[in-house]
Amino acid sequence: MPSTGPRGPAGGPALSAAPVRCSGAALERGDDPAGSAPHLAAFLLVEHHGPWGQSVLRDSRLPEDVRRHLGGHQHLKVLLARRHHRAHRGSSYAVMACFPGRRQLLVRTVEDHRELLDVDVAAIARGEAPEGWDPAPGPVYAVCTHGRHDACCAERGRPVVAALTGVRPEQTWEVSHVGGDRFAANVLVLPEGLYYGQVTPEGVTGLAHHHEAGRLDLDHLRGRSSRPMSVQHAEVALRRHLDDDRLTSVRLVALDAERAVFAHESGRWEVRVERRTGEPARLTCGAAGLSRVPTFAVTSLVRLDPDTSEAGGA
C-alpha cells in the first residue's frame, strides 16, 4: 500500500516536519482568549535595549543587584521595553509604573539602571504609587516580542509591533514576556491593563483606533488584568450577549466566589462562570510536555430584578 505521509522533493519522504507552534495550534483548536489575562495589581516597564535572554529577571544584562531587586513580587509584572528598530540614543531610560485598577500611568527617567535600587518595588506591587513620578499620557501599546522566551512571540509579535509603530511611534513599545504565549501576538494596552491576543499586523491599527474611540475589540480581548480570570471571562461573555463594546459601559459592582454582578444601562446582570479543562496540548512552544487547556464556561447569565439581593464586594 503506498505511503500517504508527507512527501519531500521529487516525491521522496519529507526530511522534517515544520515545527508546530503553540499559537497556530491554539488557533486551530479555537481557543477563546477571554479570561486568560494574568491577574495583577501593577506593571513596571523598564526601558532596556540589550538582549533579554529567556527570563528577563535571570538572563538579561541588567545589573544583577537590579534584577534581584525587581524580582520576587507577587501581583507585579516587570517588563523590559524597547523601541522597535530604533537605536537607543541619549543617556536616560524611561521607567513606567502602571496601576490598571485605577487607570494610572506614571513615568520617570533614570540615567543608570542602578537608580532602580531606590524604587520601592514592593510598594508598587501593593498598588502604591511612587512619589515624585510624573503622570504619563496614554494609551501605551506594549507588544510582546520576546522570542527567546517563546518563538511565537517573535514570529507573530514583531510584524504587529512594526505595523503599530508605523502609526503610533511614540506610544508603541516592544516588551518582554507578558504571559499567554499561545495567544500571540499579544498586545497590552495601558493604563487600562487590557490584554489582547491573536492580534494580526492587519488588525492592530484598527485595534488602536477602536481603543482611542473608547471601544473594545471583543474578538481579541483576553481580559482586564485588574480582575480575576473568571471575572474577565464573565465580562466578555456579558458584553457579547449585550453586543456592547463601549469601554466603560459595564461596571463590576459585586463579586463573590461563585458569581460576578455587573451594572449596565439595561440593568444589573449576574454572570456565573465555571472553570474547566480541555484536551491535553502543548501550551507554549518550549513546553516539555502536554497540559490540559484551561477554559471557562458560563453556567448562568441573567438580568437581576431591581430588588434582588447582591451580597458581596466589588
Q: Note the main sheet.
A: 10 strands, mixed
> Beta-strand level of the residues, as a percent range?
25-35%
Count of discrete alpha- or pi-helical segments spanning 4 or more residues: 7
Q: So, the CATH homologous superfamily?
A: Glutaredoxin
Query: Fraction of residues in helices?
Result: 10-25%
- Form type: globular
Please trace the helix and strand order, writing H or E for each element.
HEHHEEEHEEHEEEHEHEEEE
CATH classification, class level: Alpha Beta
Strand segment count: 14
- How far apart, in Å, are the first and last alpha carbons? 65 Å
How many domain regions?
1
Low-confidence stretches: 1-17, 309-314
What fold name stands as the CATH topology?
Glutaredoxin
In spatial order, strands of the major sheet run: 5-4-3-1-2-7-6-8-9-10
What Rg is obtained from the alpha carbons, in whole angstroms? 21 Å
Helix/sheet category:
alpha+beta
Mean pLDDT: 91
- Which CATH architecture would you pick? 3-Layer(aba) Sandwich
InterPro entries: Aim32/Apd1-like, Thioredoxin-like_sf
Protein name: Sucrase/ferredoxin-like
Pfam families: Suc_Fer-like
Organism: Nocardioides scoriae
Written account of the structure:
The model is unreliable at 1-17 and 309-314 (pLDDT under 50). It is built from seven helices and 14 strands. The chain is globular and about 60 Å long. 39% of the residues are buried. α5 (151-167) crosses α6. The strands form two sheets. Strands 5-4-3-1-2-7-6-8-9-10 form a ten-stranded mixed beta sheet. It is of the alpha+beta class and 314 residues long. The chain has a single domain, classed as Glutaredoxin. Helices cover 21% and strands 28% of the residues. It has helices spanning 22-29, 56-59, 64-70, 121-125, 151-167, 201-212, 229-242, and strands at residues 42-47, 76-82, 93-99, 104-110, 134-135, 140-144, 172-175, 187-190, 194-196, 221-224, 251-255, 260-264, 267-281, 291-303.
